Amino acid sequence: MEFEISDSQALVKLRCFEEGVKSQMEKESWCREPISCTSEVLEALTDNFKEENFISLTTYGKVYRGKVKLDSIGAETRDVTVKIWDEKVHVINDSKVVDEEVRFLSHFSMNHHPNLVRLIGFSSNGYRYKGPVTGVVYDLNSLDTLYNHTLKDTFSWIQRIKVALEFAKLLEYLHNRERPYVVFNIDSTNIMLDQAYNPILIDFGLLSGGIMGGRRFVQEFGHMSPGYCDPFYAKCGMRCIWSDVFSFGLILLGLIAKRVDLKDDLEKRKYQRLNKWATEVYKHGCSLVHPNLREDKDFEESDGIKLTELAMCCIQVEKAEERPSMTQVVKSLENLSAFQVLSEYAHKDKRMKLGGK
Questions:
Q1: For 55-79, how does the pLDDT look when each residue is reduced to its tens digit (9 = 90+)?
Q2: Using CA of residue 221, residue 222, residue 225, residue 228, what is the dihedral sign?
Q3: d(Cα 48, Cα 52) in Å, to the nearest integer?
Q4: What pLDDT, on the 0 to 100 scale, is given for residue 271?
Q5: Beta strand pairing status for 199-201 and 191-194?
Q6: The pTM is what?
């Protein structure tokens, strides 16, 4: 049974939001302004946060699939993703985080990047027990989080290379601004895949630099995601782009080795498991690519060795400043044999729903 809003005032707000979204869809993406909404709107879009619409936990909350009705009878709809903050896991002021996320994603330098999520609406009421929900609405038809998808056999070699390359390009873009951004919360649970296997960053709670500045409350309370925490940061407490490179190295390792830190929830995840595993088994010139992926029709053994070496360079601990820059990472990825295959697929099929084995 579809969730219905019984309160007439809340229903009016929902209809206003739907009309606002329809109006925004008619504009160029760069000039769209996010729409302020209420908890009731978030509930209606997700059918009262129905379990079947639940996608995944993130570091600080949950994400759900939703639909926005674009006409009075609901014949025309738009798939969206709703992210809410969870009072059980948040460690910083969620309303403030929402407001700053709106500020970041609405900035003209950010609201057009294909791997940054596009914001439709937001509710920053603040979270109280059984009270208003703090959340955002994204213009995103989600497939799944990268965390949930990493272990799947249907996730092909070329799709994984595409995800690695596009996410590397996003980090390169953020790091190479006049005032560099540091994401600092890079985690496979915070990367969403859309229906065409494009990686979309959906969490900005610990992002600093650029127009965001130092964000003192983040400096005081925010810490890197468990399992992706840079030992360099853990040792000296310095927030820098090299920590993003470290986390990217673990994302890359997870993609090629089909490994994630299995967990029942975020609180139970053990630190540095993937990093520790890779360090213990790696030998110069070896490949850590999963055996199943080596059977993929598009896999080249030389690429496996190059990717393994690249990932290990990203997560090397001794001298963080000697890790490759994201520009160097992008160049390395574009020198793979798989990049040529990727280009051929993209030319044939712009949606890039690439074949597997």
A1: 998 877 899 999 998 876 666 889 9
A2: negative
A3: 11
A4: 47
A5: antiparallel
A6: 0.88
The answer to whether the CB of 262 falls within 8 A of the CB of 340 is no
Burial class (CB in 10 A: 0-12, 13-18, 19+), 50: middle
DSSP string, 207-243: -EEGGGTT-HHHHHH--PPTTS--HHHHHH----HHH
164 and 176 in contact (C-beta within 8 Å)?
A: no
Long-range contacts of residues 27-30, Cβ cutoff 8 Å, at least 24 apart: 29/111, 29/112, 29/118, 30/108, 30/111, 30/112
Q: Which helix (H) or strand (E) holds 318?
A: none
pLDDT digits (tens, 9 = 90+) for 195-253: 999 999 999 988 888 888 865 555 555 565 666 777 776 667 677 899 999 999 999 99
Coil, helix or strand at residue 122: strand
Asked if residue 34 lies in contact with residue 119, where contact means CB atoms within 8 angstroms, the answer is yes
Give the separation between CA 296 and CA 289, rounded to whole angstroms: 11
